[in-house]
Amino acid sequence: MNTTLYYSLFALTAGAPVDGYARSMVPETQPIQRTANAFSTTRDLAEVTPTARASTPPAAASPQPAAGEPVKKAGTEKFKPPSESDIPDNEFGESVRLGKQIFENTQQYAARYVGNKLNCVNCHLDNGRRANSAPLWAAYGVYPAYRKKTGQIDTIQSRLQGCFLYSMNGTAPEWNSKEMVALVTYHYWMAKNAPTGVKMPGQGFVKVAKPALPPDLKRGGEVFKNNCAICHGADGGGTKGADGKIAFPPLWGKDSFNWGAGMHKVDTAAGFIKENMPYGRFGTLSDQEAWDVALFMNSHERPKDPRYEKSLEHTRDKFHDEVCLYHRSPADMLVQIEKQEKSEAAAKAKSASGKESKARPIPTEGLSPATAH
């Protein structure tokens, strides 16, 4: 396997100095709201257990772990997808292998649908196997599901179409195209023996707690300079291998994901970075550093949101009620963080109240728990 394709979107290792990226892309559609203090890397933000009946016989005792063996909590075991060596040598196996090839090298095997320099493995590490990197085995079984982003019931096919439209800044493959069939088959294979309709441990990206300090561009620039630039380039445009192909993907600019991709959300990017970066030194950044560098990365220009309507303000209000910099200053984004916190707290309080009053629990079936893209 070409190891360069294994590397992720945010390979962050000790690096070279960082320069501001040339802001040359379609200025009239640039969604970042510029303010006197916005986007300068040298300025701080500053700114339900029923009672058992007496007649019910006692349940058989659960087997106890041997002395010294750690006790596993229910639901905490991470799923293990099947080995690639187990792919059958038949027509089905051929489709699985093609799906894997598309996933590893989207630039070559699904070129007609791709509009940037990314591959699927840039966000879904280890060919879609790594937990907390939006693994395929945890995604397949939760669809069909309603998604707020699309306002409809999405299938795994329409979910993948969204990946191409936003993360790949391209066009959606037809449902019956060989690429779509192969990708769905690869997802199905990876989820072999996984439960259906269950949010599994390791699904999506981790949620990083609100940082002690407001996310800051200057600090984020330093994190990028010291950890990311050596792989992704001082300008964030990615780096190429000896074969001339992209080895480490671009984080912003015309060859990266667009403003509609889930990774443009600062909290989503922080979750990916916190768990999966720096590459080879996973999890060594603090929560604060993950937030800071996610803010810095997403303060740069990238292709416009394909859902753009009427104006930046209209598009922001209709599609970007989230923790992001789409036509917002970093200070405005802090308001979004507070808004999200209040919304989550209200949902938890409502759920707790429902349990206490033995009211009907808030339904979760059919609602996508996905956080990627």
Number of helices: 12
Helix-strand pattern, N to C? HHHHEEHHHHEEHHHH
Query: What radius of gyration results from the CA coordinates?
Result: 22 Å
Question: What portion of residues belong to β-strands?
Answer: under 5%
Helix content: 25-40%
Poorly predicted sequence stretches spanning 5 or more consecutive residues: 2-29, 34-75
- Judging from the principal axes of the Cα atoms, what is the shape? globular
Report on the structure:
This protein has 373 residues and is mainly alpha-helical. Helices cover 33% and strands 3% of the residues. It has twelve helices and four strands; from the N terminus they run ααααββααααββαααα. It has helices at residues 91-104, 106-109, 125-128, 136-139, 156-167, 178-190, 217-227, 229-232, 266-276, 287-297, 312-319, 330-356; strands at residues 145-147, 152-154, 239-240, 246-248. It has a two-stranded antiparallel ribbon with strand order 1-2. A two-stranded antiparallel sheet has the order 3-4.
Fold topology:
Elements: H1 91-104, H2 106-109, H3 125-128, H4 136-139, E1 145-147, E2 152-154, H5 156-167, H6 178-190, H7 217-227, H8 229-232, E3 239-240, E4 246-248, H9 266-276, H10 287-297, H11 312-319, H12 330-356
Antiparallel strand pairs: 1-2, 3-4
Helix pairs in contact: 1-6, 7-10, 9-10
What descriptive keywords fit this protein?
two-stranded antiparallel ribbon, single chain, two-stranded antiparallel sheet, mainly alpha, disordered N terminus, 12 helices, globular
